[in-house]
């Protein structure tokens, strides 16, 4: 996983996600249709006789195209089913039921209202969390809390975050757990419940109809060396990200460029995008698009696979928002639509 993105990486271990953790006409290749001007009209303007009608399309070619389209539609449908299966996972993004920032200092933790950090389950008093100005946070459990870490009784000690090797340290009360995350220098707490209301209420993600026209082959230009882009997260922190190159494509006669982020050379590309559906039909902060690492000078952008970031599915998750460079002045009517959050 990525160093900055491992915190916010695909595996929802921390609630800080780069997930897997980020304007008007339908861009449906109208520029192609403009080319389809009547041949006879053009020839008439030129003072020429219209050419004879072309022969009917070859039946085998038409059938092959239809088979290709059906195979593509089936592949997108399979991707959607696999994605929804992951979202139904008891340890997935929808299991988050509590979150908040943690300031430097001493904090009482528990489900009772007299705590500094009130969690949505478990004992009334879990214990005391201390976050020093320097060094690792430390948790001291209450004597009768019955808390566990890694299946063993927890007597207290330092807590790892998702940025530490082997972290985060999950403190369990039954199947529910409490742990810390860190974004930059900011600490936060997360609480997860495999029986969360959001999981029980999940009924799939709405999406636009699949349109093969939104599977676009773009020109890929690698940056030598890779560049750095600052990403603003939904909690206001700034995270630097590695940008290995740019994808360039044209729609309706307009040139568009998108910048992906990537941990290391050879890893998949992660596009954090927004467009003129954002904040209307789709989530306002961004949608995410994952693309295999390019081979050569082309990369396929399949916007039918544009997905909601985890923070669009659950308000207890932090995600990067689309950088200005990736805010497209067109409507991408493909991929996932806004998910109705369960509160």
Core attributes:
343 residues, alpha+beta, Tumour Suppressor Smad4, 5-stranded mixed β-sheet, 4-stranded antiparallel β-sheet, 6 helices, 18 strands, 16% helix, 30% strand, elongated, disordered N terminus
Description of the molecule:
The protein contains six helices and 18 strands. The chain has helices spanning 3-7, 30-35, 39-45, 59-87, 197-201, 310-313, and strands spanning 96-102, 105-110, 117-118, 127-131, 138-141, 148-149, 152-153, 157-158, 171-173, 176-183, 186-192, 215-232, 238-251, 254-258, 260-261, 269-273, 287-291, 298-302. The protein is of the alpha+beta class. A five-stranded mixed β-sheet has the order 3-2-4-5-8, with no helix packed on it. A four-stranded antiparallel β-sheet has the order 1-11-10-9, with no helix packed on it. It has two domains: 3-28 and 68-87 and 203-326, no CATH class; 95-201, Tumour Suppressor Smad4. The protein starts with a helix and ends in a 30-residue tail after the last helix.
* Poorly predicted runs of 5 or more residues: 1-13, 18-57
The count of domains is 2
Determine Rg (CA atoms, Å).
25 Å
Distance between the termini: 31 Å
SSE-based structural type: alpha+beta
Topology:
Layout lengths: L2 H5 L22 H6 L3 H7 L13 H29 L8 E7 L2 E6 L6 E2 L8 E5 L6 E4 L6 E2 L2 E2 L3 E2 L12 E3 L2 E8 L2 E7 L4 H5 L13 E18 L5 E14 L2 E5 L1 E2 L7 E5 L13 E5 L6 E5 L7 H4 L30
Parallel strand pairs: 2-3
Antiparallel strand pairs: 1-11, 2-4, 4-5, 5-8, 6-7, 9-10, 10-11, 12-13, 12-18, 13-14, 15-16, 16-17
């Amino acid at each position: 996983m990525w160093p900055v993105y491992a915190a916010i990486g695909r595996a929802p271990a921390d609630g800080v996600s780069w997930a897997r953790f980020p304007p008007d006409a339908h861009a449906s290749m109208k520029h192609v249709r403009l080319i389809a001007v009547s041949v006879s009209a053009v020839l008439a303007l030129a003072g020429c006789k219209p050419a004879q009608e072309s022969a009917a399309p070859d039946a085998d070619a038409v059938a092959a195209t239809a088979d290709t389209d059906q195979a593509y539609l089936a592949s997108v449908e399979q991707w959607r089913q696999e994605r929804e299966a992951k979202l139904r996972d008891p340890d997935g993004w929808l299991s988050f039921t509590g979150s908040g920032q943690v300031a430097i200092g001493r904090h009482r933790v528990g489900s009772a209202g007299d705590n500094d950090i009130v969690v949505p389950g478990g004992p009334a008093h879990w214990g005391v969390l201390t976050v020093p100005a320097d060094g690792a946070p430390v948790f001291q459990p209450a004597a009768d809390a019955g808390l566990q870490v890694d299946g063993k009784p927890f007597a207290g000690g330092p807590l790892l975050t998702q940025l530490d090797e082997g972290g985060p340290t999950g403190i369990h009360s039954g199947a529910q757990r409490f742990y810390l995350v860190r974004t930059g220098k900011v600490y936060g707490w997360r609480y997860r419940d495999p029986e969360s209301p959001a999981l029980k209420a999940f009924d799939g993600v709405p999406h636009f109809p699949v349109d093969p026209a939104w599977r676009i082959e773009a020109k890929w230009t690698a940056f030598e060396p890779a560049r750095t882009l600052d990403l603003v997260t939904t909690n206001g922190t700034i995270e630097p990200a590695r940008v290995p190159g740019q994808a360039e494509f044209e729609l309706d006669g307009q040139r568009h460029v998108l910048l992906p982020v990537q941990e290391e050379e050879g890893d998949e590309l992660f596009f954090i995008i927004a467009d003129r559906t954002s904040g209307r039909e789709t989530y306002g902060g961004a949608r995410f698009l994952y693309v295999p690492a390019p081979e050569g000078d082309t990369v396929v952008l399949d916007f039918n696979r544009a997905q909601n970031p985890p923070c669009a599915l659950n308000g207890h998750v932090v995600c990067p928002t689309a950088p200005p460079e990736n805010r497209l002045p067109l409507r991408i009517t493909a991929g996932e639509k806004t998910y109705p959050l369960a509160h």
